[in-house]
Amino acid sequence: MRIVDLRPALERHLSRRWVENESASGSGSFLAGGWNRLADSFMNRRAQARSAPPLRPFVLSVGNLALGGTGKTPVVMALARDLSAQGKRGCILTRGFKSPLAGPLEVQPENDLAGDEARLMAARLVLQGWPVIQARNRPRGLTFILQEYPELDFILVEDGHQTKDLGRHLDILILDRWARMAGNDGDVLQPETGPVFPFGPYRETAQGAHRAGILLVDYSQEVPPRGIGGQATATYSRQLVLRPVAPDTPEELPPGPFAALSGIARPSTFENGLTRLVGREPLVCVRLRDHQEYGPRLVQKIVQEMDGGGSLSLVTTA
Questions:
Q1: Positive or negative, the Cα torsion across 40, 41, 46, 49?
Q2: Residue range 242-289, pLDDT digits in tens
Q3: Contacts made by residues 307-312, CB under 8 angstroms, sequence distance 24+
């Protein structure tokens, strides 16, 4: 398997350092430890300045402590589908990362200027009738929703754990690292992280988990019913699914060599999962930065890498 990493040099360097130190927890160094404490202090001040949530609808945030790659967007879509199946009306509030549109606006899947994740959610939730609202300033987005959609039951805030000035009733926090600890009334779940960016791939340390009401972990086995801070715990399972990009495209990957193309925060997770799903390794793995824009020159480079390796098919992240 050949790796073609087209991310910026600094991002490649940082990712390599983070992978090398992945087994280490805590600060990692005196300098990183001091930086972690500053990050915690900053995040706590932001949380204390948060406004009160509206009386209704119920505002629920889904976030994480890592920089990305823990499944926030799929979890938000799954929650929206589950709540819709129970007859609940709602919408999703998202920042629209890397979009030039400040908003607030209702996202249409065909709007190329909207955020990529916002467009994905809007397309997947058409049948549920849940609009996706993009707003760079999410408190303004909340005000927009309350004015334009007064009869909602729920507002799901995508990636909102570190958002200031946005009141909500509940924070669900997705953890990518945790440990089982002995407590007074049985085992409890202990959130874990590593160094905070740029020393590691985290926005804040495990102290940020104390602001959450539910700790959500990607795990197939039983986990302790409570976190060390008294939070409820829940589990979910992520599965890769091959989706054809056109009606006449087969749902199964054709035989022969294929390439993997990822534009996400943790490309190795996608590549390893794809290998297990298909039963063979990609011939070439092209790695792009998270939320990468696909311009003509970049597309030409990707095609050249595929052709040079003899790949007959391409599997990419949604």
A1: positive
A2: 888 877 777 788 888 899 999 888 888 899 999 999 899 999 999 999
A3: 309/2, 309/257, 309/259, 309/283, 309/284, 310/257, 310/283, 311/257, 311/258, 311/259, 311/282, 311/283, 311/284, 312/254, 312/256, 312/257, 312/258
| pTM of the model as a whole | 0.86
Cβ–Cβ under 8 Å, residues 271 and 262? yes
Burial 196-227 (b: 16+ CB within 10 A, else e): beebbbbbbbbbbbebbbbbbbeeeeebbebb
- From the list 272, 273, 290, the residue with the least C-alpha distance to 11 is 290
Nearest to 142 by CA among 74, 77, 59: 59
The span from the CA of 149 to the CA of 138, in Å, is: 16
| pLDDT tens string 152-178 | 999 999 998 888 889 899 999 999 889
307: its two tokens: 């052709």
